[in-house]
Amino acid sequence: MIVDKQKNIHIYEKIIPQIKEIIPVLEQAKNMEVGTYTYPWGKAMIQEGKTRHLGEGEFESHKKYIDIQCMLEGEELMEYANINDLTEAVSYNESSDAMFWKGMGSVLNIPAGTLYIAFPEDGHKPCCHQIRQNHYKKMVIKIKIEKD
Q1: pLDDT at residue 58, as a whole number
Q2: Angle, CA 69 vertex, CA 103 and CA 51 arms, to 5°
Q3: Are 47 and 137 in contact (CB under 8 A)?
Q4: Angle ∠(113,117,118) on CA atoms, nearest 5
Q5: Rounded CA gap, 122 and 108, in Å?
Q6: CA distance 105 to 148
Q7: Would you state the pLDDT for residue 139?
Q8: So what's the pLDDT on residue 5?
């Protein structure tokens, strides 16, 4: 898991070469409509909504894609844990590329201008709050993992 300012995304090009192609898309994100956009490297989704209580839902992880979640407006809490420290709740679904987990992790505040990168071993519970529900608008970028 990597958490950083969106303005620093270029730093991670060495480990995720597709970032070079993602930067222009991210620069336009605030003006994009809610929806899914397909690119050669994967897809970008503009999502908007209200946070759920941190106690709701489960951690998720993905095998085929790296997630880069970029908070555009508002804020959320995101809970993180390595999947080896969690208990499987729902088995892997290949068509949705999602697996769900139960357990406890570290809670991070993700304000506007922040991004996080979730790799396959990173369980993450996004779009949460503890006390007060928040509005958010974010871009979720899914980068296909190339298998050798």
Answers
A1: 96
A2: 60
A3: yes
A4: 140
A5: 14
A6: 31
A7: 98
A8: 98
Residue 71: predicted pLDDT: 98
Reading the block at residue 55, the tokens are 């106690």
> Does the reported pTM lie above 0.70?
yes
Q: What share of the chain is helix, strand, coil (3-state, %, to 5)?
A: 15, 55, 30
What's CA 88's distance to the chain center, in Å? Answer: 19
Q: What is the dihedral of CA 98, 56, 103, 2, to 10 degrees?
A: 60
- What is the model's pLDDT at position 148? 58
Distances (CA, A) of 95 to 64, 106, 109, 124: 10, 29, 30, 19
Q: Give the 3-state secondary structure of residue 19.
A: helix
Could you give the CA distance from residue 28 to residue 72 in angstroms, rounded to a whole number?
Answer: 11
* Residue for token pair 């979730």: 118
Residue 15 falls in which region: left (phi positive, over 0), alpha (psi -120 to 50) or beta:
alpha
pLDDT < 70: residue spans in the chain = 148
Strands 65-82 and 122-129: antiparallel
Q: What pLDDT does 135 receive?
A: 97
Question: What gap in Å lies between CA 46 and CA 50, rounded to an integer?
Answer: 14
**Continuous H helices in 29-111:** none
